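Structure (tokenized):
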């Protein structure tokens, strides 16, 4: 059985699919079998800054492309 999963921080997540053969859900539909990956705060902060920088560069590029129209 393939179960779609959006929790990228679960150890059982792989390409939007749960790798477990069977899962249990609680009363509100949350997975009881989820094991969360811990990401060091300094690495998370670094990756956030890198992504923000990339998004700002893309945004600036979009603005330049819009002027060319």
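Design, position by position:
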């Amino acid at each position: 059985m393939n179960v779609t999963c959006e929790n990228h921080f679960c150890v059982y997540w792989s390409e939007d699919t749960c790798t477990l053969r069977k899962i249990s859900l609680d009363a509100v539909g949350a997975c009881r079998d989820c094991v969360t990956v811990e990401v060091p705060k300094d690495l998370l902060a670094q990756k956030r800054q890198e992504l923000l920088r990339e998004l700002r560069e893309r945004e600036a590029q979009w603005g330049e492309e819009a002027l060319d129209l």
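Reviewer-requested clarification: The helical segments are 41-68. The radius of gyration is 19 Å.
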